[in-house]
Design goal:
single chain, 8-stranded mixed β-sheet
């Protein structure tokens, strides 16, 4: 078993993005922490005192005096416990892409020593830690799992842009590769999680628990999206129906919309990939994914129909898309489904101006070959799609938003930002 105790842990966080940085900052309140990232520009920015993701304020960074930043393997080698918080995306075929996880494991393998512990936070399918990551650690280090080194798993529960539910105030699931390591991992997280932890019986149980959290949300949103399509065909306002149904205590408060981001729109594919590899073809999960993935095309088809009814020429029309991030009040562009709308508008030869005050233009260009505009023009648009409920858009009010349209235009409010009477279309 590992000879480490809570006091002897020398901690490193591998990956300083939306998950890793807030975690590192919290741990730095209790102990010295090495924050490692392969992106030198990210390291430089953090050293200068600013987090471009806006998950951690400049003041919080300044207070994290126990946190050092590095891209150097030499500094990593001084640590004995490593927490991996790298992304787990899907590829163009909607298959899990474990490349960041494998590369992080290779990096750690180069500095892994006897008694060390590697804890993974990245969302994966059940079995990935022990079947995909641990063999990489063994191969690179030459050490033997559960004899020379150990593993843990504690799935991230970060909600980007949420200033109320932070790292320390969301209950944490923990697990370890042996009972002793599981207890040590749990103790480590209890140092920073004020609402407590849930120690799972195995790493696979903890992995499965994480991946079904977002799969459940995805299926629920798919149901509401399907209901919205049905109610739209019937001429019934979906929000009014949901408010009425929500008057019962056990009706779940989901709303229709685009399902993007690094979790809800991705995690179900990890679970279905694993299910198919063991010979089971998921029905409900994949049906929900197909429906949610098709919402961008549905939105544009509804918009085009509304424009034709108003005798607004579709080909060559100019449409303002308000919002590009995957959720409100957050600069995160990962897996945003707004790009589905932009792409579909292009299929109709419609020019789309994308406006989002939260977005880094260079990142939008790099990720999606899109260049957001600096500001929308008054009276310039044949249609306006309110795609993200940023506070700035809410503050504009319906009059200012409608003033961006031409004399005859269509407003499609995807996020219930406007009063019902001020939107021509709503989901």
């Amino acid at each position: 078993m590992t000879t480490h105790t809570l006091d002897s842990i020398k901690l490193a966080i591998i990956g300083l993005g939306y998950v890793g940085l807030p975690l590192a900052v919290e741990f730095a309140k209790q102990r010295s922490v090495v924050g490692f990232d392969i992106n030198q520009a990210r390291i430089d920015a953090l050293r200068s005192g600013h987090d471009a993701t806006l998950e951690v304020s400049d003041e919080e960074l300044a207070e994290a005096t126990g946190l050092s930043y590095t891209a150097s393997l030499q500094e990593l080698a001084a640590c004995n416990t490593f927490i991996v918080t790298v992304p787990t995306p899907i590829d163009e075929h909607k298959q899990p892409d474990l490349t960041p996880l494998v590369k992080a494991s290779e990096t750690i393998g180069k500095v892994l020593k006897k008694g060390d512990i590697v804890i993974y936070e990245s969302t994966v399918y059940p079995g990935a830690t022990e079947e995909d990551c641990v063999p990489v650690l063994e191969k690179v280090s030459g050490l033997k799992f559960n004899v020379d080194f150990y593993a843990g798993y504690s799935p991230e529960r970060i909600n980007p842009g949420d200033k109320e539910h932070r790292v320390s105030t969301i209950k944490k699931v923990t697990a370890g590769s042996t009972p002793e390591v599981a207890e040590l991992v749990d103790q480590l997280y209890r140092q920073i999680i004020v609402v407590g932890t849930h120690k799972a019986e195995s790493i696979k149980v903890a992995e499965a628990a994480k991946v079904i959290e977002n799969t459940q949300r995805d299926v629920n949103i798919a149901l509401i999206n399907e209901l919205a399509i049905i109610f739209n065909k019937m001429g019934i306002d979906t929000e009014a129906v949901l408010q009425a149904a929500g008057s019962k205590w056990n009706f779940l408060p989901f709303r229709p919309g685009l399902v993007g981001g690094h979790c809800i729109g991705v995690d179900p594919y990890y679970l279905t990939h694993k299910a198919q590899s063991i010979g089971y073809h998921p029905e409900i999960i994949l049906a929900g994914r197909r429906l949610n993935d098709g919402m961008g095309a549905y939105v544009v088809s509804q918009l085009v129909k509304a424009m034709l009814k108003r005798r607004i020429t579709v080909e060559g029309a100019r449409v303002l898309v308000m919002g590009l991030t995957f959720k409100e009040n957050c600069p995160d562009l990962r897996n945003t489904r707004i790009v589905d709308i932009v792409k579909e508008l292009g299929e109709y030869n419609i020019q789309a101006d994308v406006y989002d005050p939260w977005v880094d233009v260079a990142e939008a260009q790099h990720e999606y070959a899109l260049t957001p505009i600096d500001a929308p023009k008054q009276g310039a648009y044949d249609a306006i799609i309110v795609g993200v409920a940023h506070d700035q858009f809410k503050a504009m009010g319906p009059a200012a938003i409608r003033a961006l349209g031409k004399k005859d235009h269509v407003v499609y409010d995807l996020k219930y930002v406007l009063p019902r009477s001020q939107a021509d279309l709503r989901l």
